[in-house]
């Protein structure tokens, strides 16, 4: 099997609908796909239905956005019970926090002389998870910046003039939420987060996996995360972080894949977690 375990749809900040994403996965020869939208599960019903239609195994997932002392840290969740009330309630608080954060960034941009509004940002949102990519899209559309990547680099990244920190949700809290939803919590793109020192503590909180294979990891980084996975008995995952955006910083669907061994390991870990959850 060939699987890309990290993808996004229009339910958050991706450019393709869930059905379009699954159709593309089929044409790319992928047999399994992790659909992991930011802080929402709104695209999973459509993705699972499309997976059945196109004979692509869809692994229901989510990518939770958190803030650690080192900066932004993302936690992926796989095989989640995506209709579980506790998970949906948590995601609703995240959605509200995203809206408030976006409004504050729009306010800062106005102070900097950029004539944009929340109404314009909302027009860019096709799903539930509003965020910086939608602000960037407005800036591009209105001619203020040449690309989404440029908007992030000059205005929206940490340390830039319009940046506003996320709501204070800790990585450990995200791990807890995913475990309670019967899912496998995995540290996303650790090479970007630069939070290797946090891994032992997260393992103590219940972290179950690490995304060793990622487009921006070089061979040395991949090797380091494979070693850490072995040391802490973590499942190994990999994915492209596909958003459907054609810019130099974004990888194509299937750019990073895992095979049958990793998929089976992930599924076994999910089954173990679900058994443990029934005993609580």
From TrEMBL:
Q: Which GO terms describe its molecular function?
A: 5'-3' DNA exonuclease activity; 5'-3' RNA exonuclease activity; DNA-directed DNA polymerase activity
Q: Which domain of life is it from?
A: Bacteria
Q: Mind listing the UniProt keywords for this protein, alphabetically?
A: Nucleotidyltransferase, Transferase
What the entry lists under InterPro entries is as follows: PHP_dom (IPR004013), PHP_domain (IPR052018), Pol/His_phosphatase_N (IPR003141), Pol/histidinol_Pase-like (IPR016195)
Gene3D superfamilies, from UniProt? 1.10.150.650, Metal-dependent hydrolases
Domain (Polymerase/histidinol phosphatase N-terminal) spans 3-68
Which SUPFAM superfamilies does the UniProt record give? Answer: PHP domain-like
Recorded E.C. number(s)?
A: 2.7.7.7
EC category:
transferase
Q: What is this protein called?
A: Error-prone DNA polymerase
> Which source organism?
Moorella mulderi DSM 14980
